[in-house]
Queue: 2 jobs
Job 1
Amino acid sequence: MENEIHQVIPINPVPYSRSRQAGEAQTVLDHIVDDFQENPVAMQYFYDLFRQVYCHGDEIPHSGKLVGTTCIQAPEELIYAFGATPVRLCNGSYHYDQRGADFMPAKSCSLVKATLGMLSSENVIPKIGKPDLVVNPSTCDQKKKSSVMIEGMGYSVYDLEFPNVKESEASRVYWRRSVREFANQLRKLTGKRLTRANLKAAMAMTGRAQAAFRTLHNFRRQTPSLILGKDAFLVTNAYFFDDIERWTTAVEKLNAELAERQAAGFRAVQSKAPRVVFTGSPPIFPNLKLPLLIEEAGGVVVADETCSANRMLYDMTAVDEWLLSDMVDSLADKYLKPCTCPIFTRNDDRKRRLLDLVAQFKADGVIYQAFSGCQVYEMEYRSVAEEFNKAGIPMLYIETDYSPDDQGQLSTRIEAFLESLKNRKKRHA
Amino acid sequence: MTAAKPAMQRLRDAVNEVDFNRFRFWFQITAFILFVYGGYLAIDLGSKLPFFSCGYNREGRAGVCYLLPLQHQLGRNWAVLFSMASLTILTGFLTFAAWFIVLNKGWCGFVCPLGTLQDWISALRRRLGIRYANYTQGQFAQLTKIKFVLLALLILIPLGIGGGLFSHDMSPPFCLICPARMVLPLFTGDLSQFTIDFSSKTAVVMTALGISVTALFFVGSFVKKRFFCFFCPMSALHYLISKPALLKLKKDGSKCTRCGDCYAVCDMEIKEIADDVKTTNIMTDDCTMCLKCVASCPETGALKATFVGIPIFVSTETGFIKRMNKGCQHGK
């Protein structure tokens, strides 16, 4: 027996940077960087960041305990206030998607599968370390059922109870209690106390990041566009794992450059390029398939309504009295009330926000991405389409996943859609 | 971005980005001094004012709250009440209405001395680091009716007195239980209202009730923001005649994300301000038009105060960010 083992030809494990997984990231990143002209200089920070983290597998340092979050509803201000670092675990890698298929039924959401695949692998990319706690807000069914599986992988998991009706007063009260309980959990985890001073400092930090995001968001109103959507998505994706202060500084630099571009009358796209609002399942690096297809085909994503970008950073918190209780309650409200996640019973807010984005950003049409298996987005398609029909706004609905196989077929559909938007524009002009 | 902004736009931006809480604090102090001490400077703005410039503050008052003469007028003998002499009731009301329509409920949020006093008591509580209390939705729905009941009583009881149904010792009924009657004269060193009148049973009951309400006022406004305003019959009267008012609180629902930031800062816990995206004229019966909601709205143009249709204070993203940054750094 022993002899046989010795006879096996040892396979040297390839370094991460030469793995198929790194290759996937490399291909997308090269595409983002090299196949478009005149990328903003300030984007180099983000290109380098993704190259280091996703292509080379470099480690990302963090301070304090590491708290993984699987949804935007986990209040990150609280995590920062306890001196811990949040990291968003939602993953966009096809490699992990395939790996995670072991855990979920065949027709499930790629994002959930990829997150499970990532957490179950030995070499987790982004390499930020093992989370001391995984916070899993009880949002959609697939995420809810992931809790136990993640626990089974050896993580300590906290189910943050999130209501699925958001209009009622009962849900507000319930959620505020949930958030307080979450703060208790963080206290146990970190052994630190939540104080007025540290929560205020945390809110100042996220407030600055949000202000920077909003500035970037506002620059995208400009026609013709100053920046492409693929870059904007990369920026917000970096927020998942990057150091928040460093991230904010980089975005502020980018904003300064966009201001210069605006002053110089710069155009990132042709003046007739169809302007698209992106909604639905979130594009997360390396799965920037749709935004890239849109922009390759001559369109431009000018705004989005997704939880990997706009929904994550847009809504800001107002506090009346800067006492701990008031701050925590205001934060809780911010994470529930404006949220346009499709897991809620009603989606009036989502429809209104989409209509407003189309109007404010002078969009010509909307592209709606639903990951196959993401039932809530698939089910909301009907009502959103009806709303747009009424308003006379064209929409393309695309059901897809992380697999690159459907790129050819999708690019044909997207090109046709953008062409029709152009024709429509001409007719209206 | 590069071209210089026109002067009007710059002025608008400056207003919209103002440190609102500070502005309102100083505005309220000025109004408080004017209406509690203005009398010493021989200022007299009449007796039809639409807020609690209390008539019992005899020396300092710069004008009198309309509720005092209204109750007196309605308490006339019925023979007089139903004669031509009562035209003065009508003219009085019109004068009151003329004052009112200028600021709408803005009188409550910016001018009323009793309102200002409650804000100061709240500030004291805040400095002590004690959190404020809230009503539950059910409590709110019940309590919000009380001000209309008080308004009805404020009209019916004087009518009853005039008709001989109630004792004259009940007149003026609301003033006798209004905390302003006892509290505002204090500021000019007049303690005479802090007494129980033993001249008759009715007088004992009314003055004792007055003292209890005043005690409740202090306790209530310490734990609850704008505690008394919730029950104020003047506020109810305002609401009933607010349609032609010049100052308006407007909401553009299409720009609202229902984030609830406005509700979070609302002293009166008005949920509609955040949740209602259909009504454009968003001032409710409980509103004091303090405009804190406008100052704390991050969506440009979603909330605004207009005067004769002209926007004078509009919610803006930049204004919001400035104000909240300030709060984060050294907010109290």
Job 2
Amino acid sequence: MNPSVLDGYDPQGFYCEMLQNAASRVVRERLSGLSIAALKQRAGNANTELYNLGITFTVYSEAKTIDRILPFDVIPRILSGDEWQHLESGITQRITAINLLLDDIYHKQHVLRDGIVPPELILGNRNYRPAMRDIDLPHKTYVNICGTDIVRDEHGTFLVLEDNARTPSGVSYVVENRHMMLRAFPDLLDEIGLRPIENYGAKLISALNEVAPAGIGDPRVVLLSPGTYNSAYFEHVFLAREMGVPLVEGRDLLVENDRVFMRTTRGLSRVDVIYRRIDDDYLDPEAFLPGSMLGVPGLMRAYRAGNLALANAVGTGVADDKAVYAYLPQIIRYYLTQEPILQNVETHICREPAALRYTLDHLAELVVKPVGEAGGYGITVGPKASREELDECRAKLIADPANYISQPCIKLSVAPTLVEGRVEPRHVDLRPFAVTGSSTWILPGGLTRVALRRGSLVVNSSQGGGSKDTWVVA
Amino acid sequence: MPDVLLARYADCIFWLARYVERAENLARILDVNETFSRDSRGGQNWRSIVQLNSDEERFFAGHDAAAAHNVVNFYVVDGDNPTSIVSTIRYARENARTLRPLISTEMWVQLNVFYNRLTELRTEDLAPGNLAALFAMIKEACQTHTGITEGTFFRDQGWYFYQIGRYIERADQTTRLLDIKYHLLLPSPSDVGSPVDVSQWNALLRSAAGYHAYRRLHAASTTPARVAGFMLLNNAFPRSVHHCVREVGRLLGEVKSHHGLRNGNDAAEELDRLQAVLGTFEIAAILRSGLHEFLDSIQRQLMAVTRELSIAFFGYTPEAQQAQTANSQ
């Protein structure tokens, strides 16, 4: 007798996205009609197809470049319509507040003068860009694309872990994972009221058109990539194709008379909007890092002159700093006079002496993170750390407390995951993708990342994470 | 809004087409040589292949003599040899990777799978008994690429630059094939009309997929002059130099007029001159004044066309173009 997919599956006391969700009933029933052997075979085919499609990220080792696929788990993560509505309104609220915050700190700075956020936290932040002072952006939208990282604790409560307001990646996996599931498991998702995610590209290009410089009827949008050797190159290709816009590199662009042009077969051609997948530092060697070969000299001149829209705007990194994040509940109340719909994870800002003392006293229970990093780098997970790792972390905290925050170690929710031929619980998070032009729209679902190593809480692809398709069902 | 093609993309699509065409031609040559060499001049024939791409220096740095196994290895799986099939398809795939926003997903997937398959070839796949199947696989993969492209590639500027690249490469490959073979196969008095002599000329025609077409035109006799004339000048033979050059000229004219490209007149003039030469001379006259010199001048003119296209459309300055030509020829 072949065991079926969920036979003997035990979430081991964690909140389970599959079992503790009424919306997943039909899918559970269908999975119990499927043997693990059959699931494994279909999963193998799906992964081969991802490899052939070249939906890969690139790993560099000695002298060789290797294309790896982001490991894909075929058992979907399911969200009910109600859960999604809650997330949607909570994320929209955060992004609205973040855009108001950015507009304020690059103009009159009420939020600082009213004592809501310590001025040195903003003005002394390495991601605060004085070059952005007094630039007026269409619709005051700074963050056009946002990928909010959300986790769920042992009670099933959604908590925001990070607001990725610079250049969040992963949306291509969301859409490609769905394509894969449509091909490999048509029987699983038939008639369950699954919300479609086909129109991401159309929504994105509309939002980018909305923020184009005033007076341009049919704006020329391009996507600016660091090039084929960037590990997210596949996603850049995906987005350019979905929007039907040219995928350019810095060397394809130039600035003349504060206007941006690209080099074409016909000569120079105007560019009005750039969705850039290059960090601020590398964007314009005249304005930021002088040695950058990836950027375009003069881009900031065109930007300041109002001849160019950049998405996301320059200087949004200050808003997804992990210390600024801790103030977001106050920021929401300040600008919107609303209570936050989604809660933060409790955060101790180590620049504050009491918080530092608490962190040092409870190091073995806490997660310590550097404030300005992304990608899961530099994190110490107290309960998993060795004596030496804790000592090292303590030394860093004492040497530069302002560079760190600490948070309690959340017992992340789990989802059934196919691992080495067995179905076991693995921790997951969720990154919905929000697009903002004149208003905010959120792609239903988002990227569910899964920590494939047993017991691991780190879901980042650079740290052995994989992904799942996320189904919002009515 | 007029359609816009990045200069860099035009360059990549031109070279993507050239590399796949180059790989197909190389597979054809190796295939025919493998099939028809054993009953004739053996080793010398394998040496002639090394001369085809002027690879003698690089080849003999690593090998004592040109024999079937080491030439096949050098030209199929040796990733350190930039003229090997695996390297050529690697360049094609790299260009395709850059071009993914422009080309169809099916074009990309097929090249990606093809390249992965080449990198996974093992020694036994190169054993004499498996070579015919290997070359058939490579030729078919290249032709599949061409077919998928024909059936899925959007007909904008990129399509023209793709085809222009393919025909320039094909013309160039035919001149190289003819140059080497003609040199070696010039009949010595004792060979004339012998079965060995005829089978060599037939092999040459087969490597360009021209054997049956040639038979339809000249059923009774296979002579060096007729074979050379067929491969150089025949208007209906898809791999003849004249046909390819005429196609390049037609395509360049169309892309300029359909897409409003004002540049490229120097390339068009160069092509006019080349067509005039190919349309004027009889093969007898070409042979009298020296086939090698004639082929050499065509190769140089094709390089000049590439240079003019690179400057007119691909965003190269004349200086940068020189460096590019040195790297990719």
